[in-house]
């Protein structure tokens, strides 16, 4: 299984699929490439798809470090260097979108097209309150109830109703794979993220994509990103929740691939 040894000795698990222009698919707070599994085959028909488990998650090193979005972005840049890609398109979901903003601002030459999916601009009062609650769930109730809460916060009620058994099995697996101390450190990292003042410097063609009923990163964050980034286009689905790429996979794939192909 392919691992990259990072400059500090920790290991990053990654995979590549397909051929064509490189496309990094960057997952959210959960950190594992499994989020993208329903989409990999379709994206790999058009792109060289780059996937990785964030440090602290999945098959990467479970390092108890002080996490930051900047550190997560640097890990991804080290992976692109390892694979020999000077530039790649980047589609980041939630925390992956914060990573995308960071690279677009700090290393703009490394990104071609940018997709910001269900992401946020800064930890405002709502965001802090929500993630304070989720952190307390992890501390007091443990990884299983945290995973159950993620399903409730992240998916539309009808989807949860119709996929209850599947979600229950996934929540058990997520809980077994979670290191609480690492997840708490990752929550603290995203609560600190704030690059609002610099967003007008992002000059990449950008797709800002989300759902109106997202309870984790509300629609107003996407609207702010699209309003502030000069070359941004906003697409908002009427429903689908935070994990709308799971709820509407074909629509997600078609919209993103059309944006990436329009050069």
Q: Class by helix and strand content?
A: alpha/beta
Largest sheet: 8 strands, mixed
Strand order of the largest sheet: 1-2-4-3-5-6-7-8
How many helices? 10
- The coarse silhouette is globular
Number of distinct beta strands: 8
Report on this structure.
The chain has an 8-stranded mixed β-sheet, with helices on both faces. Helices cover 47% and strands 18% of the residues. The radius of gyration is 17 Å and the shape is globular. The protein has one domain (3-123, 193-261): Rossmann fold, CATH 3.40.50. The chain is built from 10 helices and 8 strands. Helix 2 (69-83) packs across helix 3 (95-106) and helix 4 crosses helix 7. The protein is α/β, with parallel strands linked by helices. A hairpin with a 5-residue loop joins strand 1 (3-5) and strand 2.
Give a quick set of tags describing it:
alpha/beta, Rossmann fold, 18% strand, globular
Please summarize what this structure is.
The chain has 263 residues and is an alpha/beta fold. It has ten helices and eight strands. The radius of gyration is 17 Å and the shape is globular.
């Amino acid at each position: 299984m392919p691992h990259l040894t990072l400059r500090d000795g920790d290991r990053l698990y990654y995979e590549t699929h397909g051929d064509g222009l490189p496309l990094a698919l960057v997952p959210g707070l959960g950190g594992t490439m499994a989020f993208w599994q329903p989409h990999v085959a379709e994206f790999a028909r058009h792109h060289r798809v780059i996937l990785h488990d964030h440090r602290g998650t999945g098959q990467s090193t479970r390092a108890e470090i002080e996490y930051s979005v900047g550190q997560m972005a640097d890990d991804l840049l080290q992976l692109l260097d390892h694979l020999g890609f000077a530039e790649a398109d980047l589609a980041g979901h939630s925390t992956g979108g914060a990573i995308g903003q960071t690279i677009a601002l700090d290393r703009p030459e490394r990104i071609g097209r940018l997709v910001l999916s269900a992401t946020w601009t800064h930890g405002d009062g709502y965001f802090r309150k929500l993630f304070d609650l989720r952190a307390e769930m992890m501390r007091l109730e443990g990884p299983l109830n945290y995973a159950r809460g993620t399903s409730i916060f992240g998916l539309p009620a009808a989807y949860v109703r119709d996929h209850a058994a599947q979600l229950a099995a996934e929540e058990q697996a997520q809980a077994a794979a979670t290191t609480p101390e690492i997840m708490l450190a990752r929550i603290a990292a995203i609560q600190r993220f704030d690059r609002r003042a610099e967003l007008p410097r992002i000059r990449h063609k950008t797709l800002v994509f989300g759902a109106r009923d997202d309870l984790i990163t509300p629609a107003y964050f996407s609207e702010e990103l699209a309003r502030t980034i000069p070359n941004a286009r906003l697409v908002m689905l009427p429903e689908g929740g935070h994990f709308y790429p799971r709820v509407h996979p074909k629509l997600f794939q078609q919209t993103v691939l059309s944006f990436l192909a329009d050069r």
